[in-house]
Amino acid sequence: MTASVVVTGLGVVSPNGMGVKDYWAATLGGKHGIGRITRFDPTGYPARLAGQIEDFDAEELLPSRLLPQTDRVTRLALVAADWALADAGADPAHLPEFDMGVITASAAGGFEFGQGELQALWSQGSQYVSAYQSFAWFYAVNSGQISIRNGMKGPSGVVVSEGAGGLDAVAQARRQIRRGTPLIVTGGVDASICPWGWVAQLACGRLTTSDEPDHAYLPFDRDANGYVPGEGGAILIAEDADAARARGVRPYGEVAGYGATIDPRPGSGREPNLAKAIETALADADVNAADIDVVFADGAGDPAGDLAEARAVSTVFGDRGVPVTVPKTMTGRLYSGGAPLDLAAAFLALRDGVIPPTVHIDPCADYPLDLVLGEPRPAELRTALVLARGAGGFNSAMVVRAA
Amino acid sequence: MSGRRVVITGIEVIAPGGVGRENFWNLLSNGRTATRGITFFDPAPFRSRVAAEADFDPYEHGLTPQEVRRLDRAAQFAVVASRGAVADSGLDIPSLDPHRVGVTVGSAVGATMGLDQEYRVVSDGGRLDTVDHTYAVPHLYDYMVPSSFAAEVAWAVGAEGPSTVVSTGCTSGIDSVGYAVELVREGSADVVIAGSSDAPISPITMACFDAIKATTPRHDEPECASRPFDKTRNGFVLGEGTAFFVLEELDSARKRGAHIYAEIAGYATRSNAYHMTGLRPDGVEMAEAIDLALGEARLNPQSIDYINAHGSGTKQNDRHETAAFKRSLGDHAYRTPVSSIKSMVGHSLGAIGSIEIAASALAMEYDVVPPTANLHTPDPECDLDYVPLVARDQLIDAVLTVGSGFGGFQSAMVLATPERSLV
């Protein structure tokens, strides 16, 4: 049973634009959202740049009773879900409750909420820890809160595969639609720009120490020396194609193929597995490499990661065989939110026949990639490939096709 | 449906009361409890001071000093148990295409123990708002993002196929195995090393459950503190542990002559869309998950020989799932033995679902229903046969196991002998 699964709604919360319209205008215009951290004073830390969402007023967008029990990440996810449902023209109050599910990715849960409660615990005592700590920080919080807010009783799920998780969530949503649930809210949002979250991210050793926002996160550049983390992501409405048609909705496009692998243990001497994930996704979509019109690359932003990705892409597509872009150069890496945001960009690119640019980079000639640089590139686009990797060696690839 | 059926061919368990599936099964079949006063830290400031702690020495189980430093306790459990499950299965992973071997690890709260300890250090006991990165352990990022558990397991067993962590709170342990079953059924993998792990016995976890009075304050008799379905129950006992499985496609398992514990015949998860921690007493959404799992298993409700309950021992949970069993199984619910192993090993959050799948498979293996310990005073609201105190010999061909968790998630899984007749 391989029912066609389409995406009918997008909800974007991104450092360079809130909502699909602003995000897409900023992305085509090369406007980035990277700057020095303002949420706390980053002076003493070796990395000080982040992709922050500056104009988000949760009080205006969500009921006040939800605020004390939610981390910033959940507020962003709830609003993104509201926007995605509206974009899909889907009113959950008028759909059967067991016919809607929620499957999201997370990397860090409500980490800032956790920081506050850990501080209460260790500075004041256990009796000062909030009753909401039992669910506000854990990785399942966004799926749970979205299902409750929208009365969705179908299958829920949460996957954690660091930066690859966003694609894994959408793939799991597709599975559940094929098993009979017509609509799944999916994607992912992450946000942990707080001192405790920052110290944890610093420990990964891959954050850039640059202080120049337009010369910091530089995937495929000779100067690549780490990434800028960000907050945000995208929530997508995935639907059974027939159910969407019956609702009279025109989808953005189809989730046509997916593949996932994990790299071998470091030091094993075995080859990394991104190319294998791409090949699996192409086969799953029943397309050849030549059918792919654009690749949204993962863009690690460090020499080893960039080299591995450039090799995988050229192995499958040949040297400079396909246009490649990294719009996340305008947002920073959003962990589990990054790939869903790239999926949103891919669907918008298919809709408008234009490839969004990669900004800030001067590509290293060693990588045989046809990077779309500086300006958007008009193109006839029918099929796109989105790549996402996660720390620890997770590789996911997803093929999306125009409606 | 492709027709591919998925079976368990290897099991390993680390649980309170004993490391290894034999020790685990001995505890359960003898109705012994492993709950005790907390020893990991001074529990005096807490409302609830009991827990089910595992006596686990990572060095005894082959972890190296660097692995012990790198891995949070929950990840240590996962690495040891995943290796144990592979050994039990007799599967030679290096002889397989590693891209066809996947990993799925469930965990509700990831490396919460490591995070709690490290926060205390980098904040200097909560004094610093701007926490000090120079005191952070090098693997703090792997504590923050628990997909590190799936990577560690994949490295430990040599898997290179689809790998992820499933984190749906207290149903993670069922949902991770359910996710893995779907990978094999759809053909994305031929083998998945699946299970779950949590090690949450840490001050922050005790404090947050104290705040909502979810855990029991019965510390005068810690060994009797977990009392599912008993009228005097007043909260769960926090536990820790892990269970891992080797899941394979039925025909290839038969072909290699593997020992088959059980088929994972049906699985479903649904949400109550009601409250992050509260449950409506009617059990409608759990019943929906049970009905779907039975349907997928192509079994009538009357075929279920044993229900391995969530049975956390909170007032609302035990009532909720009793209602769900009656709703799905009708009169058969009254004739089916129901038990909660949380009475013996506590509630290890995201791990317990997998530990309960292990208990269900071992119940089928030995034709023994594990009991509900500490059940002395029946509750009129919980009026099924909960197998009090003493295990029961009984032929078991099909088991229903369920989970319920924060976020409103309700999951159900049916294990059955692959030789059953399909309706």
Automatic annotation (TrEMBL), chain B:
This is Beta-ketoacyl-[acyl-carrier-protein] synthase family protein. Coiled coil: none annotated. Its EC number is 2.3.1.-. The keyword Transferase applies. GO terms for cellular component: cytosol. It comes from the Bacteria. Residues 3-417 form the Ketosynthase family 3 (KS3) domain. It is an enzyme of class 2 (transferase). Pfam families: ketoacyl-synt, Ketoacyl-synt_C. GO terms for molecular function: 3-oxoacyl-[acyl-carrier-protein] synthase activity. Keywords: Acyltransferase, Transferase. Belongs to the thiolase-like superfamily. Beta-ketoacyl-ACP synthases family. GO terms for biological process: fatty acid elongation. The keyword Transferase applies.
